[in-house]
Amino acid sequence: MSEHELRIALPPWVAEVVEWTRPYPDDDTRMRLAITLAAENVRRGTGGPFGAVIVEEETGRLLSIGVNRVVPENNSILHAEVIAFMMAQRRVGSYTLGAPGLPAHTLVSSCEPCAMCLGATLWSGVRRLVCGATREDAMGARFDEGPVFPQSYRYLEAKGIAIVRGLLRDEARAVLESYAATGEIYNG
Fold first, then answer.
1. What string of H, E and C letters represents the secondary structure of the chain?
2. Residue 81 catalytic?
3. Do the strands 51-56 and 105-111 form a parallel or antiparallel pair, or are they unpaired?
4. Is the entire prediction scored with pTM above 0.85?
5. What does the pLDDT look like over 140-159, one tens digit per residue?
6. N or C: which end of the chain has fewer CB within 10 A?
7. Of 144, 137, 127, whose CA–CA distance to 166 is shortest?
8. Set 5, 40, 81, 145: catalytic member
């Protein structure tokens, strides 16, 4: 690969963990997958404690997943949500998941998005955001989540993005705490 080229790939273990053909019909099953991705990423030493899933809202069809790859790829923007957006948009062949003719999509994230990922959520075209651990949980694990404010969420809602926060929070927070004990905090 040349210095003028960038390739982004998910870790090989994803094929062992993700069941691409099964539906994820509800927020709990979707969140459990996001948390599993985050936990496996930590356990296998392939990145930070964050996982994300994008599904078609009505059918539960899995469109893409993402895991945090900041440290192994030396790239500050390779957060789980950003990777999931990139993979999803490539798969549907559009820079927006809200393009005419596409079904409504939901982003499920093991943690409330940081400032960058919250902005990407707005522009991604998803219609729903479902979060596990909170911003406070991430900050408690020494991650700096940037300028995210209550009005940030109100803005997304005003733009038509429904938001669910705190789903399976204890399970999601446990992954952050596990990583904080041994992993590299890259923006704290």
1. CCCCCCCCCCCCCHHHHCCCCCCCCCHHHHHHHHHHHHHHHHHCCCCCCCEEEEEECCCCCEEEEEECCHHHHCCCCCCHHHHHHHHHHHHHCCCCCCCCCCCCEEEEEEECCCHHHHHHHHHHCCCEEEEEECHHHHHHCCCCCCCCCHHHHHHHHHCCCEEECCCCHHHHHHHHHHHHHHCCCCCC
2. yes
3. antiparallel
4. yes
5. 999 989 999 999 999 999 99
6. N
7. 137
8. 81
